[in-house]
Amino acid sequence: MNDMGLVVVGAAGRMGQALVRAIAAIPGASLSAAIERAGSPQVGRDAGEIAGLGPIGVKITDDPLPAFAKADGVLDFTMPAATTEFAGYAAQARIVHVIGTTGCTPDDDAKIAAAARHATIVKSGNMSLGVNLLAVLVEQAAKALEPEDFDIEILEMHHRMKVDAPSGTALLLGQAAARGRAIALADESVRVRDGHTGARKAGTVGFATLRGGSVVGDHSVILAGPGERITLSHHAEDRASFARGAGKAARWARGRKAGLYSMRDVLGLGAS
Questions:
Q1: 240-253 and 14-24 helices cross at what angle (nearest 10)?
Q2: Does 41 sit behind a cis peptide bond, omega within 30 degrees of 0 on the bond before it?
């Protein structure tokens, strides 16, 4: 089989650069195109130089359509508005679309699901192996521990530039906890506490968000019971783990039928 030609969108950003570096290290994959927004000062520059690899002969462009038409897949950690547009292009081209973008609204998710009728889409709030293993453990713990006895709180911290809260990873972990307890997270979550809030309602999943500095991503799920406390944690030290996971997802998705998949599907960790 020929190398899998992959497009990186948002190629000049920190995550985009990590994706370019990851593709260079993946046997059987190659960077076929690098995309940036129209007007970006990086358009026309070599994507490898920006990513610290030296020249690789792939110039950054602001026109995704011809790039998608010639590619086997696209790696996308951009913004929801851009991601829904790229999902439509991936559907037109019938290619793989790996989505690590967070902050999507229900309307965004509906557009992505519609695109998955023709594109093979892998979407996850976090692409790393460690976080997806953590989600399985959280689901098992939530199922095993009675909600009347054990409260669940999710604490996350990211760098100062992150714009969505709670993070996509925190929500992924919250969904895992909700599955374990057979509840709807949207109905049983607490996102904000301020002032005189009263006693904590049993069975809810709480979220706490911290922002500052250059933190790549810290997540802890605390199960607090009478006289004891369990903490399940993951600490991301750099973006390379997300990039490697995205590359693994793209290779897994190649040749599969159109549809919407998750990293739990990719890693064989059971239904998501």
A1: 60
A2: no
| Rounded-to-integer distance, Cα 199 and Cα 259, Å | 43
pTM of the predicted model as reported, rounded to 2 decimal places: 0.83
Which residues have C-beta within 8 Å of that of residue 21, sequence separation ≥ 6?
A: 51, 52, 53, 240, 243
168-214 pLDDT, tens digit each: 999 999 999 999 999 999 999 999 999 999 999 999 999 999 999 99
Q: Residue type for 2, please?
A: N
State which amino acid sits at residue 223. Answer: L
For residue 162, indicate whether it is catalytic: yes
Whether residue 150 contacts residue 224, with contact meaning beta carbons closer than 8 Å, is answered with yes
230 burial class (0-12, 13-18, 19+ CB within 10 angstroms)?
middle
- With beta carbons less than 8 A apart as the criterion, state whether 204 and 189 touch: yes
Following DSSP, what letter does each residue of 178-232 receive, concatenated?
Answer: HHHHT--TTTSEE----S---SPPTT-EEEEEEE-TT--EEEEEEEEETTEEEEE
pLDDT tens per residue, range 38-96: 999 999 999 999 999 999 999 999 999 999 999 999 999 999 999 999 999 999 999 99
Strands lying side by side in the sheet with 29-35? 60-61, 29-35, 4-9, 73-76, 96-99, 120-123, 259-261
**How many Cβ atoms are within 10 Å of 254's Cβ, its own excluded?**
17
- Name the active-site residue from 97, 162, 219, 234: 162
Annotated catalytic residue: which of 97, 111, 123, 158?
Answer: 158
Is 70 part of the annotated catalytic residue set?
Answer: no
For every residue of 221-255, DSSP letters joined together read EEEEETTEEEEEEEEE-STHHHHHHHHHHHHHHTT
Measured in whole angstroms, how far is the alpha carbon of residue 60 from the centre of its chain? 23
pLDDT for position 1: 67
